[in-house]
Amino acid sequence: MPELPEVETTRRGIEPHILKHGVAGVVVRNAQLRWPVPETIHSIVGDHIAAVKRRGKYLLLGMTQGTVIMHLGMSGSLRVCGKAEPYRKHDHFICCFETGKSLRFHDPRRFGAILWTTEEPYEHPLLAELGPEPLSAKFHAEYLYRVTRNRRMPIKSFIMNSHVVVGVGNIYANEALFMASIRPGRAAGRLTKAESEQFVGAIKRVLKKAIQEGGTTLRDFLNAEGNPGYFVQSLQVYGRDGAPCQQCHRPIKRKMIAQRASYYCPACQT
DNA sequence: CCCTGAACCTGACCGC
DNA sequence: TGCGGTCAGGTTCAGG
Q1: CATH code at A141-264
Q2: Which bases on strand C have an atom closer than 7 Å to a protein beta carbon?
Q3: How far is A141 from A203, CA to CA, in rounded Å?
């Protein structure tokens, strides 16, 4: 479920419930996630949440003694629960607060991660090499044009590489390419300066709008309050193969690119 | 360095 | 109902 808008929606949802709250205990019901949840995660007990941040699709719980680095993978979600709520299947990690509330990490496919570091979190190997935030001033047309030169990889795969720019996953890559009238299979290095400008603008617009609408709900995604996101109603191409293009009414096409479903309008996108 | 494909997992859905 | 095949929002890693 989570791309950047879903992760940001989650961050905003949990922050008011956990910021400054003391950690009374930790329950690891299944440590086998993307990487094993380290034993050292228990060192957060007795500490408190000093900050709730996001870098790309990583959530960072800043404590006084270190940082919990979380990733929701493909199917992960975080929810703030009350005292007596029973565990659900796939609730793998629970952080219990002195208030009686708890933060629960739920992840059926277990591609997510929960790590602990006492070092500077942005220098952690998983974060150190990440590209710019897509909504920051560092992500601009000249940057995209420069890093795409001589790259033969399809532009869609290229933009989904978090070392290029963080937070653009499969849904929003498809949507932004449609908005910029660029086919997903085009070689990255063949984008013109004008197209780089279009594409960067489209990425910023689509992510901003999705965050405003609380993310995209597919299947069972609920935000930290248990509410769905509404961006799914705004999708122009994702999941719409065979349906009419909203611009020209010809059917949207579906094609696999690097093992990921790609959707585009063969008429509107070149 | 560049690029591709496999791997990590569970569950939903579709056709037979 | 059951069974097998396919697909799913992400990312790292091995290998050519």
Answers
A1: 1.10.8.50
A2: 7-12
A3: 11
